[in-house]
Amino acid sequence: MTGRGIHYRDKQGNPIVIVMDANDAAEWLRDFAAKVTIVELDKSETLGALRKAQSQSVQGARVYDYAHVLASDKAGAEVVLTRNVDHFQSLTRARVEWP
After folding, report:
1. Residues with Cβ < 8 Å from 15, sequence gap 6 or more?
2. Are 20 and 28 in contact (CB under 8 A)?
3. Which residues 6+ apart lie within 8 Å of 4 measured at CB?
């Protein structure tokens, strides 16, 4: 948010970059955090999922994405927003969308 900024495209497809200063980023994060419910995976959920990881072609850096999918599934999420749609598509029952 404060370095490379937030890259996205408007409705016409034009690229837009928003770069925040540290105070604005901290304020945005405070507001956002107030709207978020934290879902944690316990040890047995994590170890059980890692046991299944290979059968789902999850390895390397994708394990990190897999943990997010497991938490979103546990929370009952209907939609997962990610900029790595391909990494999540085959791992979750939820709809996967670019934010």
Report:
1. 7, 8, 9
2. yes
3. 17, 19
Q: What is the pLDDT of residues 22-56, one digit of tens each?
A: 999 999 999 999 998 899 999 999 999 999 898 88
Question: DSSP letters of 37-76?
Answer: ------HHHHHHHHHHHGGGT--TTHHHHHHHHHHHHHHT
Planar angle of CA 53, 55, 61, nearest 5 degrees: 40
The SS3 call for residue 82 is: coil
- Parallel, antiparallel or unpaired: strands 6-9 and 15-18: antiparallel
Of residues 91, 17, 16, the one with CA closest to residue 53: 91
